[in-house]
Specification:
- This protein has 219 residues and is of the alpha/beta class.
- The protein has one domain: 2-enoyl-CoA Hydratase, Chain A, domain 1, CATH 3.90.226.
- It contains seven helices and nine strands; from the N terminus they run ββαββααββαββαααβ.
- It has helices at residues 36-49, 76-80, 91-101, 117-124, 152-160, 162-170, 181-186, and strands at 10-16, 19-24, 55-60, 64-67, 105-110, 112-115, 127-131, 136-138, 193-195.
- The strands form two sheets. Strands 1-2-3-5-7-9 form a six-stranded mixed sheet, with helices on one face. The protein has a three-stranded parallel sheet with strand order 4-6-8.
- Helix 4 packs across helix 5.
- The protein starts with 9 loop residues before the first strand and ends in a 24-residue tail after the last strand.
């Protein structure tokens, strides 16, 4: 096992040639900012290029927070001065599009708040597993007069239908948690599985054992 780098906020651990773990570690809230972008881009570029990789799992080292919103305190020019990505899109939507097209199975393991960018990363991934007690999913930007920048309104209708997608964007407080009946119904089709905290694996895993997935390009 080896790390691609020892960055401050995004860590990549190769558990095997076919299975990587990407961990967000930016306490106390796992806020995503312009300094996070090149770190995540390095990881996305690496997984696109590795023909032995089959599964990549995103998780968090910060208790209660998977990945949250964009850093409002960062200088705007630190983001606007970044060049477009390979798709021609701005850096954040570029990385999420590339992740959704990558020839690997991408999975998010959510044991805390996945809001803003965190929710957008979850939607761009192939599968989502969530803690029954801790997971919170939200696209709250419209309520604050902002436009979600990572493409959630293109992906949400495909997962939960147009009506519920509009509800998630316009009324983000409704059904956003997994811990009540309304929330459970709201995200039932958004997550692949919900796991009680007392059933979490010894390494914080929410996921079942991975079966053999075949060649990466067959996924």
């Amino acid at each position: 096992m080896s790390d691609i780098s020892s960055t401050r906020q995004v860590r990549l651990l190769r558990r095997s040639p076919s299975y990587w773990r990407i961990t967000f570690d930016h306490p106390p809230l796992n806020i995503f900012g312009p300094e996070t972008i090149p770190q995540l881009n390095e990881v996305i570029t690496a997984l696109e290029a590795d023909d032995k990789l089959k599964v990549v799992v995103f998780d968090s080292a910060v208790d209660g927070f998977f990945l949250t919103h964009y850093d409002f305190l960062a200088k705007p020019e630190d983001t606007t001065n970044l060049p477009p990505g390979p798709t021609g899109l701005a850096q954040l939507p570029d990385m999420l599009v590339r992740l959704s097209r990558a020839p690997v199975v991408s999975i998010v393991s959510i044991r805390g708040r996945a809001t803003g960018v965190g929710s957008e990363l979850a939607l761009a991934s192939d599968m989502r597993f969530a803690s029954r007690e801790k997971a919170i999913l939200s696209q709250w930007e419209v309520g604050a007069g902002l436009v979600p920048g990572g493409g959630p309104m293109a992906r949400l209708p495909r997962l939960i239908g147009r009506g519920r997608a509009l509800e998630a964007a316009c009324f983000p407080s409704s059904g956003r948690t997994l811990t009540d009946d309304a929330g459970d119904a709201f995200v039932a089709v958004l997550t692949n599985g919900k796991v009680m905290e007392d059933k979490v694996g010894p390494h914080g895993d929410l996921l079942p054992e991975f079966p053999y997935l075949g060649p990466p390009h067959s996924a």
